[in-house]
């Protein structure tokens, strides 16, 4: 998951840009990644919205703060923003 710096300031809404992946995300809002991203912030009162876009566009959207989060970023890429990882 790649987050822009703007995502760290106690958001009331989160905008996710991501590519369509079978079983993980769909334009209809179904899939493992989208369900997980809704389950975490929504109980805390944070609204979640998303847009399915091509991978390179999601990178550009996060890098220019047009999206708060993108899913599926490759850690080997040089993407302006912040990667979140857990051991």
Automatic annotation (TrEMBL):
<protein>
    <submittedName>
        <fullName>Uncharacterized protein</fullName>
    </submittedName>
</protein>
């Amino acid at each position: 998951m790649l987050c822009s710096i703007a995502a760290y300031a106690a958001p009331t809404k989160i905008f996710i840009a991501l590519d369509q992946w079978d079983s993980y995300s769909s334009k209809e809002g179904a899939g493992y990644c989208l369900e997980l991203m809704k389950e975490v912030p929504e109980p805390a009162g944070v609204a979640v919205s998303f847009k399915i876009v091509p991978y390179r566009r999601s990178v550009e959207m996060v890098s220019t703060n047009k999206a708060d989060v993108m899913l599926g970023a490759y850690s080997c890429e040089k993407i302006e923003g912040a990667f979140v990882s857990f051991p």
